[in-house]
Amino acid sequence: MDEFFKSEGLVDGETRAKILKAAIDEIKMNTCKLACRQVEKILRIREEFGWQIHRLNAKEVFLRCGGDANEVSEKLVLVPSTNIVARFICKENIDPKPTIGTPSSAIVVATTNN
């Protein structure tokens, strides 16, 4: 991207578009390498420590807008992640209760199920 920004006013539009495409391709390649390294680290931790790894797929939350996204976030992310942490810490399932705003709020109060 550095080359793209430095080229402003120095090269024609077509050359600048080629520089931008090359920069975007490099970013995509680096992002892919980073993601692969992260997966390798997660798998290594799982194998070395025998940890159970949980995967939450939040893609649907990003595809939604407005209030509907909040409901999907609560269902797919907040409730499952809260229960995963509760099982790890307390060996119990808990009901997450958002205290401020939406389920995506950082502050969550959890009460144990009896």
UniProtKB/TrEMBL annotation:
InterPro entries hit by this protein: Dimethylallyltransferase, P-loop_NTPase
This protein's record includes keyword tRNA processing: no
Biological processes annotated in GO: cytokinin biosynthetic process; tRNA modification
Keyword terms: ATP-binding, Cytokinin biosynthesis, Nucleotide-binding, Transferase
One Gene Ontology CC term in the entry: mitochondrion
GO molecular-function term, one example from the UniProt record: tRNA dimethylallyltransferase activity
Chloroplast in keyword set: no
Domain of life: Eukaryota
The family this protein is said to belong to: Belongs to the IPP transferase family.
PANTHER family, sorted: ADENYLATE ISOPENTENYLTRANSFERASE 5, CHLOROPLASTIC, TRNA DIMETHYLALLYLTRANSFERASE
Name of the protein described by the UniProt record: Adenylate isopentenyltransferase 5, chloroplastic-like
